[in-house]
Amino acid sequence: SLFRSGGAANDSWLYVVPALGGTPHFITKDPWAGGVGISPDGRKMAFIEHPNTGPSLLVVADIDGGHEHAIAHDSGADYFGITVAPSWSPDGKIVTATSWWEKGSSQQAIRYFRVDGSKQELAATSPRYAHNGPWLPDGSGFFFEHGEKEFAPLQIWFQPFPVGPKQRLTN
Length: 171
Description:
- With 171 residues, this protein is an all-beta fold.
- It is built from no helices and 16 strands.
- The strands form 4 sheets. Strands 8, 9, 10, 11 and 12 form a 5-stranded antiparallel β-sheet that branches.
- The protein is globular, with a radius of gyration of 16 Å.
């Protein structure tokens, strides 16, 4: 089991706790409150980390905390900090995450990142809120929610993968 303790984003800790009891194993300090995304095979996790100094990071690690490495970091104009856990593709090769995007005005963006760090792509932006969601079991796309206009209600969308126009599913 994963356990997060603490309060504010820069005052928290992430542990793996054996489900049947035992000693908690420290994973990292400063995971963001949005949660942890567990890979489909259960061997890896992805989470947002906010160190007290430096950029926010999208981190992938083994489920026991080993081999922790950042697959993406903020660029100043684009920073992680949304309280939604990263989401894994069914094959475990892609992670989607939500970030704030300062492009003339504050927006939220959903991006997908290759776990090996080789590539990232912008899937959608929203002038309001955006939240990445689950993938289809066959990996042909993922769901997310966002508002098309600043004060519009959030709607559920589908983004085909690897390419294709996003499709609005609710109204």
